[in-house]
């Protein structure tokens, strides 16, 4: 497994927000920017086993919306998640960041990767519309702190500011 020596358990989120703006500068495409953003997060934050996007799409049933897997780093993931189901679907329904210290204790958790033990999911809201969610998993319990939540929310804001979606 490749370990970036610059990974830190206490990342400099101010620097990471500036890096998001820098790597996305001049490109506004959702797919390209989501791929770059996922790679940056996965490569710079320690103790992760998945980082990526689920994007809002019409539900297969024709009623409501689902989340469909988008650009990510890590093992293959669940392809489609209904709103309100699991941590990602609950985040989408509530439109608020959810931090879960132990995913196995989360009601309705969807186990895409049995190695995941904690998770943070941040909603992607642009111009009042839910575009999707950004999901990060860790093999460690209680991996994500309040500092991570605040920093990652700022990074997601920088991503949304730089992206047409």
CATH fold node name? Beta-Lactamase
Any guess at the CATH architecture?
2-Layer Sandwich
Low-confidence stretches: 1-6
Instruction: State the major sheet.
Output: 6 strands, antiparallel
* Structural class assignment: alpha+beta
Can I get a quick summary?
With 165 residues, the chain is an alpha+beta fold. The chain is built from 4 helices and 6 strands. A 6-stranded antiparallel beta sheet has the order 3-2-1-6-5-4, with helices on both faces.
Protein topology:
Layout: H1 13-24, H2 30-44, E1 50-58, E2 65-74, E3 80-82, H3 86-94, E4 98-100, E5 118-126, E6 129-138, H4 146-161
Helix pairs in contact: 1-4
Report on the architecture of this protein.
- By secondary structure, the protein is α+β, with helices and mostly antiparallel strands.
- The protein has a single domain (13-161), classed as GAF domain (Beta-Lactamase).
- The chain is 32% helix and 27% strand.
- It contains four helices and six strands.
- The longest helix has 16 residues, at 146-161.
- The chain is globular.
């Amino acid at each position: 497994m490749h370990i970036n020596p610059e990974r830190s358990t206490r990342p400099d989120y101010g620097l990471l927000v500036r890096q998001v703006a820098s790597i996305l500068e001049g490109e506004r495409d959702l797919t390209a920017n989501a791929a770059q953003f996922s790679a940056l997060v996965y490569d710079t934050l320690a103790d992760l086993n998945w980082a990526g996007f689920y994007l809002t799409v019409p539900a297969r049933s024709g009623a409501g919306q689902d989340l469909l897997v988008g650009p990510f780093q890590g093992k293959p993931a669940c392809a489609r998640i209904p709103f309100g189901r699991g941590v990602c679907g609950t985040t989408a329904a509530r439109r608020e960041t959810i931090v879960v210290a132990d995913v196995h204790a989360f009601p309705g958790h969807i186990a895409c990767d049995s190695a995941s033990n904690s998770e943070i999911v941040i909603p992607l809201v642009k111009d009042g519309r839910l575009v999707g969610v950004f999901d990060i998993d860790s093999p460690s319990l209680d991996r994500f702190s309040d500092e991570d939540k605040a920093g990652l929310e700022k990074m997601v804001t920088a991503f949304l500011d730089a992206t047409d979606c």
